[in-house]
Amino acid sequence: MAGNTGEVKTARTSRRMLLLALVMGLAAGMAAAVLLLADFGSTGGSREASTGKALIGGPFSLVNAEGARVTEKDFAGKPMLVFFGFTNCPDVCPSGLQIIAAALDQLGDKAKGLTPVFITVDPERDTPEVTGQYVKSFHPSIVGLSGPADDVAGAIKVYRVYAKKVEDPETPDHYNVDHSAFLYLMDKNGEFVRHFPHSVDADTLAAELAKAL
Predict the structure, then answer these.
(1) N or C: which end of the chain has fewer CB within 10 A?
(2) Backbone phi, then psi, for 170, in 5-degree steps?
């Protein structure tokens, strides 16, 4: 009986120790979680919020429809609305450009205070001339930019745009380009203000652009 009693006490002690270890482990985990959440909240969970400046936009050097080299400095002094796409895009790009054109028309004379810019993600097919002619078919105010592949890649990088060439095995001479399709509103100093989805309606876009002018 004495042996059994000792074994029972030992078992109870072991269970209490195990329970205590579990409670302590849970408490430590909760404390760590609270610290992580506090740190996340203090920084906004990103470098962007901790610095108060979005990491979108920056220096670029591209070519316009007239064959002239232009940089972000050439557009200083006016807000820009920047849209990335390509001329062979079947739906997203033309619909986005149509919305931009409609918003510009709604703004009327105010639109002169804004520079809408379309940058190709497909420099292989979209020469500066081709890109320029394409955007002018939507609105005469839209500036089309292209250039050497490395320069286009640089612009894509500073605007944090996703773009990937997708080959078609059945038609090697044809390909598509998957890409993000946001409209980026930049202020007169080239700093990021906000973005819009390509599907934003023209009324909303015009109203928001008017606030920046």
Answers:
(1) N
(2) -80, -25
